[in-house]
Specification:
It holds the Pfam family BLUF. The protein has 134 residues and is of the alpha+beta class. The protein has a single domain, classed as Alpha-Beta Plaits. The protein is built from four helices and five strands; from the N terminus they run E-H-E-E-H-E-E-H-H. It has a five-stranded mixed beta sheet, with helices on both faces. Helix 3 packs antiparallel against helix 4. The termini are far apart. The protein binds flavin mononucleotide. Flavin mononucleotide binds next to helix 1, strand 2, strand 3 and helix 2.
């Protein structure tokens, strides 16, 4: 398996309802492809991890990259893994908001508790905390 992580910027038309639409399609497609992961969204940027069989993760990522609802998609890491970090979720998601900053950090800590790679875990936790502090 591989686990791939990227960051991107949402385009102006994206709002919470649009993110829900993205999640509905993501969960349907990912369940069919055996892809699991986590999507954080702070109203401006996305941080997403995708994991599963390489061909299926890469195919999903290629489709995501072409999506006009975000831009400046930057691959942060892509590596082999023997275990899933987000195995329970076809796509877990969390809106990172300034409100309830500490609850936010706690939630993201829980979502990332199973991430074996400390760099990836800190990437997600940092994303939640930077936004919470903004
Ligand atoms: C930030 C972001 C994350 C996305 N994540 C996924 C995903 O995990 N899986 C997926 O299939 N599509 C994801 N999409 C949606 C795809 O770009 C694409 O719209 C969708 O896969 C098309 O599916 P459909 O042909 O079944 O409608 C994401 C889009 C964005 C903007």
């Amino acid at each position: 398996m591989i686990q791939l992580t990227y960051i991107s910027s949402a385009t102006a038309t994206v709002n919470d309802a649009e993110v829900q639409t993205i999640l509905t399609a993501s969960r349907r497609n990912n369940a069919a492809a055996g892809v699991t992961g986590l999507l954080l969204y702070d109203g401006r940027r996305f941080l997403q991890a995708l994991e599963g069989e390489p061909v299926l993760v890469n195919r999903t990522y290629e489709r995501i990259k072409a999506d006009p609802r975000h831009r400046a998609v930057v691959l942060l890491s892509s590596k082999d893994t023997t275990e899933r970090s987000f195995g329970e979720w076809a796509m877990a998601a969390q809106k990172v908001a300034t409100a309830r900053a500490s609850d936010m950090a706690t939630l993201v800590d829980e979502l990332t508790a199973g991430v074996a790679d400390a760099n990836i875990r800190e990437l997600f936790r940092g994303f939640a905390r930077v936004r919470a502090a903004a």
